[in-house]
Design goal:
alpha/beta, Rossmann fold, six-stranded parallel beta sheet, Flavoprotein-like_sf, about 180 residues, EC 1.7.1.6, NADPH azoreductase, azobenzene reductase (NADP+) activity, FMN_Rdtase-like_dom
Amino acid sequence: MKIAIVAGSNHGAATSTRLATYIQHLATQDQHEVTLIDLYKTPLPFYTPEDDGKDHQALGAFKQAMLSADAIVLATPEYHSGMSGVLKNALDHVGQDHFHNKAVLSVSSSGGAVAVSSLTQMQTTVRNLHGINSPEWISIGGDQRKSFREDALFEDIHPDVDKRVRRVVGSFLQLAEQLVGAAKL
């Protein structure tokens, strides 16, 4: 199964991006083909309806990865009770054909305890794009973020955090496989 993971931070050492990288690691271990789109390393142009972005290489690659994916993971830091501007901008560039009937996992990292507002905002956007929200999401905050610092190894992730991330990712992958199977009928 093809999975597109969008790391939607404009910070090089974002814990949300490290969490996205860990999800990529888990999905790859489970024999899935994963494309990680790091919006910090590969920024997209500002969305405008007047410009379809055909001349922007990174935007074309982003749209193709989203279109060919069987499932999608969206990861963001929580900024002012919402998803990052770079992630929202990226999502403005795509449409229902990129999300229709695909499982989508929402993931966030917050300096506070949890990042519910950004997760709710992402799930609303996914619904409007006709994606299928995974019933669970992942939010790390406070001390949980230490497991995903730039210098941390995956082996050093706190066991409780690792167990939760693995459980939610497993549930998401099961949902995605069911949706892919149903689409083939």
